[in-house]
Amino acid sequence: MSIWFETFPLASANERSQGCGNGHVGIELLEAGEDYLRGRMPVDARTRQPAGVLHGGMSVVLAETLASWAAAYVVDPKRFHCVGQEINANHVRAVAGGWVTGTARPLHIGGRSHVWEVRIEDEQGRLACISRVTMAVLERPIAY
Fold this sequence. Notes:
Thiol Ester Dehydrase, Chain A, hydrolase, PAAI_dom, Thioestr_dom, alpha+beta, Hotdog fold thioesterase
């Protein structure tokens, strides 16, 4: 059974991301499965730290991006919107180049909050970062 309120709009979400931070660092949404959202980010001059490996903060950007997009389409977007409330990340492997791929899956989908786990892996499928993101679910103001 799918977690999505409606079909996840991959093309539209990628297009909307071009003019903001997601697009500036090269994040692309790849796939929305029955219970996950997958995206990737390049490890290049935009996302490396001075030591030449993926900046941990950029892993956090990828994690929050995936959890935010996912949360936005689990709820009825006409009635609710979701915002990041808390995020943590454990960086377990350095990545010097190529791409990292993140997969966001819900641990909890509630009426007022969601908790998402985001696994970020290198191109060999090795865990580089594990993150947990809490999203607040807020009601949209009623238009009169």
